[in-house]
Automatic annotation (TrEMBL):
Cell location: Cell membrane
Span of domain PAS: 261-328
Residues in Histidine kinase domain copies: 383-601
Pfam families: Cache_WalK, HAMP, HATPase_c, HisKA, PAS
Listed name of the protein: histidine kinase
Domain called PAC: residue spans: 325-379
Length: 607
């Protein structure tokens, strides 16, 4: 990500290349045009100058030649002088004067003196002697230099008297042009260097804000929005930088909002009492909250990426697309032999409007307790109906029998009536018990607690029972400390509890059995136990006898007049006293019912 752009790929380099090329091409075009023009100008000037001189010389020579036609030596020296006067400055030029007979009369080139007096072989001279001017540019075969070659006839009024042959080197002009070219070249070079430096500086002003923005985007990528890029100018790049800063701020806002939302969502998910599982469009788990982990006893790491129906153990019943359309909740049964465990799952599809399905949200909650309560409620209603139906059916059949004539029977009449009376009483007891339980359940009762010496309280109750127990030859044994032991209790309710337990003990005790009632003071608690020597309770039923309508032996319990609600009421009342109640029993040998109550340390002034 943080790769530096190589220099040859950079905008700077591209700009340098473009600028340098433009400058180079411009200078080249100007240079070529300029030198061409210059060359033409110089050459033209030179030609004109040569022409002028040649004309002047030919005119002078013509005069000289007519004047000194006969004096040959005077003529030669005059011609030499004229040549020297006119072409003295031309170093690499040669001017020859040729007479009518094509004999070289004079030459300006001292090293070429030997040709004087010889006949010229030049064709151009021949033509000039005929009166035609010749001019051309030729190359020196030895040096390769360009030369202006002129053959001018020397004319008098009588016609041509000779010719002037000029070879003038143009090398001066070309060396001048070469010099100018080299000046231009070095100028170009300097211009290129200077412009490159300038371009680098100019390019910097473009690239450095861009580099700044690039660095900022990388920081933003890492989540750092604190910096702003510097706005260098008010041009397009400056505007870009301003908009960029704007964008940074908006993005920061958006990121903050998103983070906040995410945190909120996360905390909602974490603290939810329902389990939540989110999947992708393929039904693979991508998210799971803590509660869902607890409910399914899995770790979210372990199941991330697994298919939802597999994790919910639904793959046998539902395919993934079934869940997409499943608007009702699904009950997941994870119960084992030992324990019941039920979860309810609700599914909702994540789908953009008219778009494809993006995933599925599953909400789980533990309905074990709810189902249990529901089950208990149904069972309770069934139990109540059953409990009421039995005495009612019995009564109905006895009443029918009475109606059919048993009433007039001396012996059967009163017996049948007493049975119906017993059943009515049982129903009343049952209804009373039910009412009391209903009051306890709806917390529609107030207990009036008062400190009582529990020992004395127990003695009173036992005294009362001893009277009845005589019939069954049951003996009560008391293990109650003589020292006053206080507890804060609602006496009427506690009487009901103890009555119920002792009457159970009596009901299920054999003739002549013992019932031992003990009171024990253990620290902050008082423990009361009522032990009988009766039939006992099987181990598996010991916890259940405190459930509503539970009876170990239904027929027997009913025959002794129990409603099956006594111990259930006792349990509720003991709990209301912040105590516990439980049973210990050895089947066939006897039962002990224990319950505890908080000890009340009575202050002196309260006694
Ligand atoms: P019930 O009115 O039928 O006695 P309880 O709630 O008082 O109802 O008792 C529930 C069941 O517990 C009884 O039906 C009986 O089977 C069993 N039970 C209670 N106490 C004793 C006991 N002392 N010995 C044996 N079984 C008992």
């Amino acid at each position: 990500m943080d790769r530096k752009v190589g220099f040859f790929k950079s905008i700077q380099f591209k700009l340098i290349i473009i600028y340098v090329l433009i400058i180079f091409i411009a200078i080249q075009i100007i240079g070529v045009y300029f030198t061409k023009q210059l060359e033409r100008q110089l050459v033209t000037n030179y030609f004109e100058m040569l022409d002028e001189r040649a004309n002047l010389l030919s005119f002078n020579l013509a005069q000289e030649m007519t004047k000194n036609k006969d004096d040959r030596s005077a003529l030669t020296s005059n011609i030499n002088r004229l040549l020297r006067d006119t072409f003295s400055l031309e170093q690499q030029s040669e001017v020859q004067v040729i007479d009518q007979n094509r004999v070289v009369v004079s030459t300006s080139n001292l090293s070429n003196r030997h040709i004087v007096g010889q006949q010229s072989t030049e064709v151009r001279v021949k033509r000039a002697l005929l009166g035609n001017k010749f001019e051309d540019v030729l190359r020196d075969p030895i040096t390769g230099h360009r030369m202006r070659v002129l053959a001018v006839p020397i004319k008098t009024d009588d016609g041509p008297v000779g010719a002037l042959y000029i070879e003038a080197s143009m090398e001066d002009i070309y060396s001048q042009i070469r010099q100018i070219n080299s000046i231009l070249l070095s100028g170009t070079f300097i211009a290129l260097i200077i412009s490159s430096v300038l371009v680098i500086l100019v390019a910097r002003t473009i690239t450095s804000p861009i580099m700044d923005m690039r660095k900022q985007t990388m920081r933003m990528g890492r989540g750092d929005f604190t910096n702003q890029v510097k706005v260098y100018s008010v041009d397009e790049i400056g505007q870009l930088a301003t908009s960029f800063n704007d964008l940074t701020m908006k993005l920061q806002d958006a990121t903050l909002t998103r983070d906040r939302e995410q945190k909120r969502l996360k905390s909602v998910l974490t603290h939810m009492t329902d389990g939540v599982i989110a999947t992708d469009q393929n039904g693979r788990i991508i998210l799971m909250n803590k509660r869902a982990e607890e409910l399914l006893s899995v770790s979210s790491k372990a199941v991330t990426g697994q298919l939802l129906p597999d994790v919910l153990q639904l793959s046998d019943t539902f395919a993934l697309y079934d869940l997409y359309e499943h608007s009702d909740s699904v009950l997941l049964d994870f119960s084992t032999k030992e324990e019941e465990y039920l979860l309810e799952a609700n599914f909702s599809v994540i789908q953009e409007k008219d778009g494809p399905i993006n995933g599925l949200i599953t909400v789980l909650h533990d309905v074990t307790e709810q189902e249990k309560i529901e089950h208990e409620r149904r069972e309770f209603v069934a139990n109540v109906s059953h409990e009421l139906r039995t005495p009612l059916t019995t009564m109905k059949s006895y009443l029918e029998a009475l109606e059919d004539g048993a009433m007039s029977d001396q012996e059967l009449g009163p017996r049948f009536l007493s049975v119906t009376q017993n059943e009515t009483e049982r129903m009343i007891r049952l209804v009373n018990d039910l009412l009391q339980l209903s009051k306890i359940d709806s917390h529609d009762y107030k207990l009036k607690f008062e400190p009582i010496d529990l020992g004395l309280f127990l003695h009173d109750i036992i005294d009362r029972f001893e009277m009845i127990a005589q019939e069954k030859h049951i003996t009560f044994k008391r293990k109650i400390p003589s020292k006053p032991t206080y507890a804060k209790i609602a006496t009427d309710k506690m009487t009901q509890v103890i009555d119920n337990v002792i009457s159970n003990a009596m009901k299920y005790s054999p003739e002549g059995g013992n019932i031992t009632i003990a009171l024990l003071h253990q620290g902050h608690q008082l423990q009361v136990s009522i032990k009988d020597e009766g039939m006992g309770i099987p181990r598996e039923s010991q916890g259940k006898i405190f459930d509503r309508f539970y009876r170990v032996d239904k027929a027997r319990a009913r025959s002794v007049g129990g409603t099956g609600l006594g111990l259930a009421i006792a349990k509720e009342l003991i709990h209301a006293h912040k105590g516990e109640i439980w049973a210990e029993s050895e089947y066939g040998k006897g039962t002990t019912i224990f319950f505890t109550l908080p000890y009340y340390a009575m202050k002196e002034d309260e006694r």
